[in-house]
């Protein structure tokens, strides 16, 4: 079970308001994406949800339980894969489970195979390509006991070809394991392709200015990118990103 509820969240750094009154829910099994420009505060929001930072105001609740400022409730996958270079892929993948004292090697090997990494379980991360390392990191997040996974721009370092393959792969694995996912990206197409719902963040300070429910059926295929419905929605989302900037930024633009 995992139902995330973020209520009235605000955060300042050195007196500067970064997040303002953020409100967002993620239902169990839902794939929700936070879409916002660089520097808008997406990582700060994730750090608060993961308990690495405390907010100035507001709360984070998981399944009705207050977890604000607490670590360990959520599986977090950062932008870089963060695999330990001295541990094999299998040892890396088992890490989340090791921390809770109970490992399931058979399940790990099965998921490594499903991630297209069979034969690499005893290799060190350096032997894998960028996309393969991301898949290994994602298997580790999937195997950890927490059912809510935060994915912070996991594909940003990958080339476009690998990225599209990874999006399809992530969708298939999410459909199979039905984890609850909160995803961050500044790539509109990626957000539209993967999400059930998109929350758009403004900047300076960041707040949720608009939510879109994404109507496309699943599984989604690459040709979706060329459908008129997809392109129309992309245009609508882009308008919100371009026009929905905070007051400070509007002022800067007008000068
Ligand atoms: N520890 C900190 N101390 C002071 N300012 C910070 C700190 N962490 C983040 N900031 C500021 O908060 C703002 C939001 O940063 P954050 O990293 O959350 O944005 P982001 O949307 O994740 O950016 P990107 O997309 O580039 O990764 C930035 O202006 C950043 O300089």
UniProtKB/TrEMBL annotation:
SMART domains for this protein: AAA
SUPFAM superfamilies for this protein: P-loop containing nucleoside triphosphate hydrolases (SSF52540)
Residues in ABC transporter domain copies: 4-228
Keywords assigned by UniProt, alphabetized: ATP-binding, Nucleotide-binding, Transport
Pfam families: ABC_tran
Keyword Transport: yes
PANTHER family per the UniProt record, alphabetical: ABC TRANSPORTER ATP-BINDING PROTEIN, TAURINE IMPORT ATP-BINDING PROTEIN-RELATED
Protein name: ABC transporter
Naturally occurring in which organism (per UniProt): Siminovitchia fordii
